Amino acid sequence: MAWERFSAMQASRRSCTLMQPGKVLLALWLAGAALHADRAGADGALAVGLPADVAKQGLAVGWAINHATSKAAQAEALRRCRELKEPPQATRDLCRIVETFDDRCVAVAVDPDAGTAGVGWAVADSQRAAEQAAMEDCMEISGQKRRNDCRITLARCDGR
């Protein structure tokens, strides 16, 4: 994939000498966009191990921010998720990347009491917005009786 972007950029550079100035700028812009096409969100990542019954099997969460590449952020988030001590191994085995992001904030909210199912996570442009969205999800899942028990357990911002 990187080779294809590099080849496209080289082809556009070779043809630039034959183009009008406006077309040269367009070709350079397109080449730059192609180089950054796979960056679409990624020097931070969130991994979650979410079993069918969170109340009984717990939850595993791992995160990473400020990594040089998406791949590095995802590897770190998965490592953290899978190395948690509290949830059972079966829950940690479920860890998957659920979000990748760049220059954004991540938040996780849970109902901290054992045997409860409340959980929510979000990625947003600000820490406040991420926390609010995570809390809303947690409160919705928790139900009417436990909605006020949700708490933010993770809030981090990437690139800030």
What is the topology?
Blueprint: H1 2-16, H2 21-35, E1 44-49, H3 54-57, E2 60-64, H4 70-82, H5 89-92, E3 96-101, E4 105-110, E5 119-124, H6 127-142, E6 151-157
Antiparallel strand pairs: 1-2, 1-3, 4-5, 4-6
Protein model, in words:
The chain is of the alpha+beta class and 160 residues long. The protein folds into 2 domains: 2-39; 44-157, no CATH class. It is built from 6 helices and 6 strands. A 3-stranded antiparallel β-sheet has the order 2-1-3. A 3-stranded antiparallel β-sheet has the order 5-4-6. α1 runs antiparallel to α2. The radius of gyration is 21 Å and the shape is flat. The model is unreliable at 1-41 (pLDDT under 50).
Brief account:
This protein is α+β, with helices and mostly antiparallel strands. 42% of the residues lie in helices and 22% in strands. 31% of the residues are buried.
